[in-house]
TrEMBL record:
<dbReference type="GO" id="GO:0016616">
    <property type="term" value="F:oxidoreductase activity, acting on the CH-OH group of donors, NAD or NADP as acceptor"/>
</dbReference>
<dbReference type="InterPro" id="IPR008927">
    <property type="entry name" value="6-PGluconate_DH-like_C_sf"/>
</dbReference>
<protein>
    <submittedName>
        <fullName>3-hydroxybutyryl-CoA dehydrogenase</fullName>
    </submittedName>
</protein>
<dbReference type="InterPro" id="IPR041040">
    <property type="entry name" value="3HCDH_RFF"/>
</dbReference>
<dbReference type="InterPro" id="IPR013328">
    <property type="entry name" value="6PGD_dom2"/>
</dbReference>
<dbReference type="InterPro" id="IPR006108">
    <property type="entry name" value="3HC_DH_C"/>
</dbReference>
<dbReference type="InterPro" id="IPR036291">
    <property type="entry name" value="NAD(P)-bd_dom_sf"/>
</dbReference>
<dbReference type="Pfam" id="PF18321">
    <property type="entry name" value="3HCDH_RFF"/>
</dbReference>
<dbReference type="GO" id="GO:0070403">
    <property type="term" value="F:NAD+ binding"/>
</dbReference>
<dbReference type="GO" id="GO:0006631">
    <property type="term" value="P:fatty acid metabolic process"/>
</dbReference>
<feature type="domain" description="3-hydroxyacyl-CoA dehydrogenase C-terminal">
    <location>
        <begin position="423"/>
        <end position="502"/>
    </location>
</feature>
<feature type="domain" description="3-hydroxybutyryl-CoA dehydrogenase reduced Rossmann-fold">
    <location>
        <begin position="351"/>
        <end position="422"/>
    </location>
</feature>
<dbReference type="Pfam" id="PF00725">
    <property type="entry name" value="3HCDH"/>
</dbReference>
<keyword id="KW-0560">Oxidoreductase</keyword>
<feature type="domain" description="3-hydroxyacyl-CoA dehydrogenase NAD binding">
    <location>
        <begin position="9"/>
        <end position="185"/>
    </location>
</feature>
<feature type="domain" description="3-hydroxyacyl-CoA dehydrogenase C-terminal">
    <location>
        <begin position="189"/>
        <end position="285"/>
    </location>
</feature>
<dbReference type="Pfam" id="PF02737">
    <property type="entry name" value="3HCDH_N"/>
</dbReference>
Length: 504
């Protein structure tokens, strides 16, 4: 295999992704051939890139000399034959299996036998694209993320016949280009597009059962550390694109109910409400998602002695907040560390950290009418005043319906009411992200470290799924999943065997 150090690179496809890949390769010192089937598209892409680089120069991000050198290394070409010397081909054309297969079969007759063939596909099987090639062992996935120059992650995807040396060469090249490569086995969605499905799916499921508005769900997940809520993010990606990826993963997994597409999103697509690019999705643009209105809450009433239940970080934090805020009056709150639940007993009422059960179920099982559940506060104590979902049992008193949010507000949160749905929003979303990542590791798609790196670098998650698991617990995650499974009675919330084995 020819060394890829400063070797000629052919980028096929002069759209946003292809142009970004060409820019990164040229900035790293490679001569780059840029080709597009549409006549003149490659030259137009270079002209746009020149304007982009000029903007970076004006902002002091790069020097004028570096910008000029980058542009000089990119050569728009009229036909693939001009790029016969390329040691690496990176394809970034339409996400269509037949189109990609046809292109790579043509490329095999253009480039040398030692050249590496790579696809920027985000969801199509690398094994399937390589089918029919004379040398499928030199074919590999090299999945960049948009915008390519800024996003650090590259998923290096091996198909069944990919030579390990080829994957290692692409990993080394990615590092040389300033990227962080994460190796993945070719399965539907690879790492990021697979593990990320629950981030959208749980919110869409809650919307379908009218548990909350997009505005409230987005606010709660942003308070948990995500840069954008699921509804904002789907509007940004485009509902047509997001829905297509979900369908692709669903179909590739033979209709596995864990990946079932959403009727809510299909209706948006059918109506042409695609998000930012159409001017309207969950929100109207350019305004976007409105901020949650501030709500004033009365001071919590002294309803009786306060007891902090449970052990661990969240129970400890509750005890400190109750004591510091003098929420139990002059008395120090009592503590029951061996309790089966985490939260506060306030007289005859209970404020319970969700374990996946609904407030109504807890109230019925415990024989206590005044029950409210609150969501998992992931960023404690880093983000006081953040939105936190809660729900009140259907038969709770009118007094407790007012007091539950008053107590949460006194503890430093902005209470956000939801219907009494199991797992609320943050807890069920994080549990499902962890569960999906666990299955990916179980199936050899990636390592736990690879999953964490991919989700943080590829979609800017505040932590990786296994980092969340370390702060939570396997038993706690499984309890939420079991409660969701018991409530909805389907395949969607089945627990990964990886989690069961880890707990054993």
């Amino acid at each position: 295999m020819t060394s890829l150090n400063n070797a000629p690179v052919l980028v096929v496809g002069a759209g946003i992704m292809g142009t970004g890949i060409a820019q990164v390769a040229a900035q790293a010192g490679h001569p780059v051939f840029l080709f597009d089937m549409r006549e003149g598209a490659a030259a137009q892409a270079k002209t746009k890139l020149a304007a982009t680089l000029d903007g970076l120069v004006a902002k002091g991000k790069i020097t004028a000399e570096a910008a000029a050198a980058t542009l000089a290394r990119i050569e728009p070409i009229p036909s693939l034959d001009v790029a016969a010397s390329a040691a690496l081909v990176v394809e970034a054309i339409v996400e269509n299996l037949d189109a990609k297969r046809s292109l790579f079969r043509q490329l095999e007759s253009v480039v040398g036998e030692t050249a590496i063939l790579a696809s920027n596909t985000s969801s199509i099987s690398v094994t399937a694209i390589a089918n029919g090639l004379q040398r499928p062992e030199r074919f590999v996935g090299m999945h960049f993320f948009n915008p390519v120059p800024q996003m650090k992650l590259v998923e290096v995807v091996s198909g069944l016949q990919t030579d390990a040396a080829v994957a290692r060469a692409i990993e080394a090249l990615s590092v040389a280009w300033g990227k962080v490569p994460v190796h993945a086995r070719s399965t539907p969605g690879f790492i990021v597009n697979r593990i990320a499905r629950p981030y959208y799916a749980e919110t869409l499921a809650l919307l379908q059962e009218q548990a909350a508005t997009p505005q409230r769900l987005d606010a709660c997940l942003k308070a948990a550390g995500f840069r954008m809520g699921p509804c904002e993010l789907m509007d940004l990606i485009g509902h047509d694109t997001n829905f297509a990826v979900t369908n692709s993963v669903f179909e590739a997994n033979f209709g596995d109910k864990r990946y079932v597409p959403s009727l809510v999103q299909r209706e948006l697509v059918d109506g042409g409400l695609l998000g930012r690019k159409s001017g309207r999705g969950f929100y109207t643009y350019p305004e976007g998602a409105p901020a949650l209105p501030a709500t004033a809450h009365e001071a919590p009433l002294a309803m009786g002695p306060v007891t902090v239940h449970g052990d661990g970080e969240i129970a400890d934090r509750l005890e400190r907040l109750v004591t510091q805020g003098r929420l139990s009056g002059d008395a120090t709150p009592s503590r029951q560390r061996q309790s089966a639940w985490v939260g506060l007993a306030i007289g005859g009422a209970r404020l319970v950290l969700t374990d996946g059960r609904t407030a109504g179920d807890i109230a019925a099982r415990e024989g206590v009418a005044d029950v409210a559940v609150f969501d998992r506060p992931l960023l404690w104590p880093a983000a006081p005043g953040g939105a936190l979902a809660y729900a009140v049992a259907p038969r709770a008193s009118a007094t407790w319906r007012q007091q539950a949010p008053a107590w949460l507000a006194a503890l430093g949160f902005a209470p956000v009411p939801l219907a009494d749905a199991p797992g609320l929003v943050v807890a069920r979303t994080i549990a499902m992200l962890i569960n999906e990542a666990a299955d990916a590791v179980l199936q050899g798609v990636c390592t736990p470290e690879g999953a964490d790196a991919a989700m943080k670098l590829g979609v800017n998650y505040p932590a990786g799924p296994f980092e969340w698991l370390a702060r939570w617990s396997v038993a706690g995650v499984m309890q939420v999943l079991e409660s969701l499974d018991a409530y909805y009675r389907g395949e969607r919330y089945r627990i990964s065997p990886w989690l069961r084995r880890t707990l054993a």
